[in-house]
Design goal:
By secondary structure, the protein is mainly β. It has helices spanning 2-19, 122-125, 209-212, 228-238, and strands spanning 24-34, 37-38, 46-47, 53-54, 58-70, 75-76, 88-92, 100-106, 109-118, 141-143, 147-156, 166-172, 180-185, 191-193, 197-206, 224-225, 242-251. The chain has one domain (23-251).
Amino acid sequence: MKRAALLILAMLPGLAACGRAPELDAEIDISHVVGGEPLRLDEGHYRNAAGEEFTVGRLRYYLSLPRLRRADGSWFEPRYPAESVDAYHLVDEAKADSRRLRIGGVPAGEYVGIEFLLGVDDARNHGGAQTGALDPARGMFWTWKSGYIFLVLEGTSPESPAPGGRYSYHLGGGEPSLARRVYLPFGERSIRVEERVKPTVHLAVDVGALLSAVNPVRIAQLPEAMDPVAARPLADNAAAMFRVDHLHHEPRRRGGG
C-alpha cells in the first residue's frame, strides 16, 4: 500500500503537466521601408516630404512590453519576472535576426491587434544600466541620469550643413517621456493562436515617416537632434512609422516551435 502511494505521488507532476495548457507563441516580423522602397543601408537614396535627398546608415530602436488584444477587447500581457529584461527588444536594421520578435506564453485564442512601446518605460529608463537588450554595451545608453536612447537614425544628406553632410537623430528621455505607445489593429482579419498553428504578424516600418508624418522635418534646418527638446517632433512622428503589412499562419513544428 505504501509502495502504491509513493508511485502515485511520483506520477502527480507528470499528470499536472499533461493537464496544463500548452505554452504557445506568436511572432512579429519587421521590414523597413522608405515610402514604397525597401530600406538599404548606405546604398538607397530617398527623399523626405521637403524633397531633401538622404541616405540611412544606421537605424536602431527599442520595442518594449508587447501585448495582444483579444477579440472581446481584453488584453494578453506576457508576465516576466521582475528582474527579467525579456520584454525589451532592440531592433537593428544591420542585424537581420533582430527584426524577428517572439511573444511567448500566449493562450490559445483569437487576437485582433498588437500594442507595444517604442522606447523604454520610465521604470527601466531610470533604473540604471541593465542586462540583455538593455546592456550599455549595445550602445543605446546615455548616462545614469539620462537613461536610454530609444531610437537612432543616422545618415547623410547633401542638404545637411553638418560636416560630411551627416545628420544624426537620437531620441530618448524627456519630461514627459519621448517613448510612444503604438497600437496596430489587424483590420478585417485576426490571428489565431493554436496548438498546431503559429501566427506571424508582418510589420512594415516606414523610416520616411520619421521625417514627415506629423511634424515635417527639414534636414537643412535640423541636422542633429540629441536632446529631448529638439527630438520631440521626431518622437511624435515615430509612432506613425508602423503598420501591419500582412498576417499569415503556418503549422507548428513538433516541440512547439
